[in-house]
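Consider the following assembly input.
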Amino acid sequence: MSSTASQLRISRVGEVTQIEFIESKILDESNIQQIADEMCSVVDEETTPKVMIRFGNVEHLSSAALGALITVNNRVKGKDGTLCLSEIDAQIREVFAITKLDKIFPIFETSDEAMKSFS
Amino acid sequence: MALTQSDQHDSFEKNTSLPYRDLDIERLQSEIAKALHERDYPREGVFAVRLAVEEALVNAYRHGNRRDDSKIVTFTCRIDSECASFEVGDEGPGFDISSVPDPTDEANLEVPSGRGLLLMREYMSLLEFIEPGNRLRMTYRRVRD
């Protein structure tokens, strides 16, 4: 199954929902709200969501984007699900380290490693 | 609307005073990135400046102007081969910087907002707020090889 939303590419691999950003810059407030809404809709459809968010295309993000990820993560945790991040550029990885959000998001170098974490 | 720009051999300067929605931030960011690249700023410097400028403008709109589209955000920048300096102002009453919670505190890690200030402080060489707190000044100093 594969579907393309306006800001995200969403696919299903086994029990895991993979979400990939289409844009390289996740900055604009209205876009971020839309992204958060789309991700939350995906989570709401699952009983126990297993979600992997792929950052392969992302070159820039803002604190508002981090906020959207936290909102989605809180929603996933509320359903006893799991959310992880993968393929994050080194500079963006540093943003997660500075904000200490790497403490709440499992982060994997590759999508393969991330997928294995669900099994 | 007020807009001035000059790009001389030694510096790139820009001043705008516009409502947030009219700022065309992507274009502004592209111009800043171009000015930084032309002066051989490192990749991490371009990333840092883009992030800090984005956070400053969004904060001015969201917290300073309370998302009021009739209010003005002022933006000034000067980029030369040594440093990139920015001033961002809003029409809000200002704020007490010491009242902002630490987003890296364990208790705040899962709170969705409140990280813009931290990122500006971490990524820029200098960040200061001008009383009463509705104008900030920040500088990124280019690291020499």
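Chain B has one domain: 2-141. Ask yourself how this observation constrains the way the partners meet.
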